[in-house]
Amino acid sequence: MCGIVGYIGERKAYPILIEGLHKLEYRGYDSAGCALISETTQNESAILNIYKAKGKVADLEAVSSGKDISGTLGIAHTRWATHGVPSETNAHPHISESGNLTLVHNGIIENYATLRDQLTKRGYTFHSETDTEVLVQLIEYTMSLRNDDLITSVRIALKMVIGAYAICVIDKRHPEQLVCARKSSPMVVGMGEENKEFFVASDASPIAEYTKNMCYLDDEQVALLQRGHDMQLYNLDGEEADVLVKEVNLDLNMLTKGGFPHFMLKEIFDQPNVLNDCMRGRVVNAPYSRPWAPQEDMGTNPLSVVLSAVTNHRRELLRAKRIVIVSCGTSWHAGLIGKQLLEHFCKIPTEVAYASEFRYSDSVIEHDDVVMAISQSGETADTLAAMEKAKKAGALVFGIVNGVGSSISRVSDTGVYIHVGPEIGVASTKAFTGQVTVLVMLALALGMAKGTVEQNEYDEVLHELVLIPEKIEKVLKQNEKIERIAQTYKYAHNFLYLGRGWNYPVALEGALKLKEISYIHAEGYPAAEMKHGPIALIDAEMPVVFIATHHQLYQKIISNMQEVISRNGHILAIVTEGDEQIKKMVDEVIEIPHTIACLAPLLTVIPMQLLSYHVAVAKGLNVDQPRNLAKSVTVE
Ligand code: G6P
Question: Which residue has the higher pLDDT, 2 or 136?
Fold first, then answer.
């Protein structure tokens, strides 16, 4: 939802900004822009150059090629349009009436129309359709009224603003300063050596190669960054705040495609490794924590789950009468599996709510409820708002997050990181399997603490869980077969995905993946519900994907298949290996290794991911940057 990069220091800013924007392009990619200030000799004022382009960061590079890109102070932006169509005019940075101030923004200014009217009456002219332009004009207006410095004017202007913002502002009359601020949109400042330079970005990925020392701004904090000075941090009232610097270690390999044509494919293939990372140190006595143990010892190795969040918040978790999971998109699908896991192993009634609905609903939250927020980015605005609501009601807020240091991780009372590394492809893949893996570990740990899970079942599930990564490897070996199947489906206009029980959320996830990157309409449904509506759509033109592993309800799902076959539907079935019965009935099968029912989603989702990927590639679409979507949705 828009990416921001800023730099002030002694190096040339442009390459840092452009590289940074490339890393943030997952946040938005409909237009891009940058502003650079070059200092000149003492008597001349500094030069401000602004370049903008409709399209991707590569288009911005083309526009700025051959132009003056000098300057050691700069700000840049990649946009995901909210107010105003993607265009050069609406692209950031926006410039103030006098031409002195320029600003980039991520978020939404809700009272922009009122502010705009007031500023228009005072003689300010607006050129774009954005809500952002009002910010830069408002800061300039505030400055003109009181003759304050830049940071004070930013602070005072922001007090008049309703909405969400992460901003970077520069003033060509002050080429030694960069001011940034945030509320409800993420922003991190990286500290260069001896305060000679500072990096600003929407997340740590553009900064990680320069420094590990980072300061995540809190809501309504404003920072002043100046060469040769310590970073200064204030709240909107001007009270100085402590600059809390933490060490952030990002695996830089995760930020490259590593030889794969797309991030999405790389991240699909990353899953065996990153799920091991997710379990490392949590499933203890697992084979990877005892590399010296002979392979055959595995069966007798007693495994257990240790999650510090469960140990440290045992009392609140054990007294929970209800769990409410709040999340969005793919994370919501993981939540549906979480519900089944928590009810099965912990016997705690669990609800799953769309965060966007929950935040405005009349849901009654008690102080002894636990509200779990699941999020890949840790920045989703609706999920954050749902958490705030739960906090106000006194519930324990438990985060299951990938984004280390993200807003959701900081707002949570406790939680578990999924630790699958940065996910760049807009369509979420490894984050989903990481979330489900965490939910399995959590349900087992909590179930054991509550005494609601039998030792035998606990041992069996854990033993199977540590085998999941190598079973995913086996599913991935069918990549070429799935690629071939995708060729036959690329002309389809509609798809139906059906599953039951543990695999019903996978049907929803499969349909979402296809919609997101292939632009093919797809619906996920519980298989037995098909006869209450979707069956009317079935004909020879409509592929139906059945997730039909060899578990409970298997015979019933076979009956659902018969209903499709008798209406000439075309079936692709995801089955347990060796399933001859379904193979004889349907058009295509993809086999997955045997596992226990509650872990099946970790395997059945892999063909869903690969199928959508290959259909999108076969259609010649931009897999990593599908139209209209953004990876991190920091607006409502
Ligand atoms: C966006 C992304 C999805 C993601 C959803 C929730 O829509 O494109 O991939 O599932 O947001 O994001 P979160 O970061 O909270 O999991």
Answer: 136
Report helix, strand or coil for 449.
helix
Number of neighbours of residue 196 by Cβ within 10 angstroms = 13
Q: Tell me the two tokens of residue 593.
A: 């290794």
Q: How far is the C-alpha of 41 from the C-alpha of 50, rounded, in Å? A: 20
Contacts of 206-211 with C-beta under 8 Å, sequence gap 24+, read: 206/5, 206/16, 206/19, 206/20, 206/21, 206/23, 206/24, 207/20, 208/248, 208/250, 208/252, 208/255, 209/252, 210/16
Sign of the C-alpha dihedral computed for residues 57, 59, 63 and 66 taken in this order? positive
pLDDT value for 538: 86
Task: Find the length of the chain.
Answer: 636
Question: From CA 217, how far away is CA 185, in angstroms rounded?
Answer: 10
Per-residue pLDDT reduced to its tens digit, 222-260: 999 999 899 999 999 999 999 999 898 877 777 778 789
The secondary structure of 5-31 as a DSSP string is: EEEESSS-HHHHHHHHHHHHGGG--SE
Which of 377, 400, 423 to mutate to test ligand 1, by most ligand atoms within 8 A of the CB atom?
377
In the DSSP assignment, the letter for residue 405 is: T
Return the number of other C-beta atoms located less than 10 Å from residue 75's C-beta: 29
Of the candidates 56, 172, 430, 631, the residue annotated as catalytic is: 631
Residues 272, 277, 283, 287, CA torsion sign: positive
- Whole-number Å distance, alpha carbon 379 to ligand 1 midpoint, is 9
Write out the two tokens for 503. 């695999």
Place of tokens 């933490």: 246
The DSSP bridge partners found for residue 304 are 284
CB count in 10 Å sphere of residue 256:
12
Rg of the chain, C-alpha, whole Å: 26
Ligand 1: centre distance to CA 329 (Å): 5
Closest CA to 201 of 36, 19, 6, 57: 6
Taking the C-alpha atoms of residue 320 and residue 308, their distance in angstroms, rounded to an integer, is 17
Q: Amino acid identity of 425? A: G
Q: Using 50, 70 and 90 to split pLDDT, how confident is the model at 42?
A: low
Q: Are 426 and 26 in contact (CB under 8 A)?
A: yes
**Beta carbon of 356 within 6 Å of any ligand 1 atom:** no
- Protein residue with least CA distance to atom 1, ligand 1: 631
Residue 355 near ligand 1, beta carbon < 6 Å = no
pLDDT of residue 552: 77
Rounded to an integer, the average pLDDT of 129-148 is 94
344 lines ligand 1 (CB under 6 A): no
**Cα 230 to averaged position of ligand 1 atoms, centre (Å):** 36
Fill in the amino acid letter for 165: Y
Helix ranges restricted to H, 296-328: 308-312, 314-319
| CA–centroid distance, residue 339 to ligand 1 (Å) | 19
DSSP 474-537: HHHTTHHHHHHHHHHHTT-SEEEEEE-GGGHHHHHHHHHHHHHHH--EEEEEEGGGGGGTGGGG
| Listed range (74-78, 263-267, 422-426, 433-437) with the worst mean pLDDT | 422-426
For the question of residue 2 being annotated catalytic, the response is yes
Residues 6+ apart with CB under 8 A from 119: 126, 134, 137, 138, 141
For ligand 1, atom 2, name the residue with the nearest CA. Answer: 631
